[in-house]
Design brief:
Blueprint lengths: L4 E2 L4 E6 L5 E6 L2 E5 L4 E8 L15 E13 L5 E7 L5 E8 L1
Antiparallel strand pairs: 1-8, 2-3, 2-8, 3-4, 4-6, 5-6, 6-7, 7-8
């Protein structure tokens, strides 16, 4: 996997701590456990990326998206990956990027 891989339309099923931080996830039919302290941050993204049924328009304003960056270890082979996860209602969160 390339470093800083942008991921289009992929979702991870995320389980969180009581404080809302990711603790474990399933992505691409693989189970991962968060290995280090998750890092919260915010991304500025086009508004239509938060409302998939909306149409793109030029000059559209940007909105803040709560994100978590997590280093996670695959339970099947021990592979370590870094995920940028967009916080979402429910357990299915968009995967915005993956780093190896």
């Amino acid at each position: 996997m390339d470093t800083d891989t942008a991921v289009e339309a992929q979702l991870a099923t995320v389980w969180t701590t009581p404080q809302g931080a990711p603790a474990r996830l399933v992505w691409n039919q693989r189970r991962f456990i968060v290995y280090t302290r998750p890092i919260p941050w915010s991304a500025r993204i086009p508004w239509w990326e938060t409302a998939p049924a909306s149409r793109k328009t030029s000059g559209a304003p940007m909105v803040e998206q709560a994100m978590w960056q997590v280093q996670a270890k695959a339970l099947d082979d021990g592979e370590m990956l870094i995920f940028d996860l967009a916080v979402s209602d429910g357990p299915r969160w968009p995967v915005r990027a993956i780093f190896d």
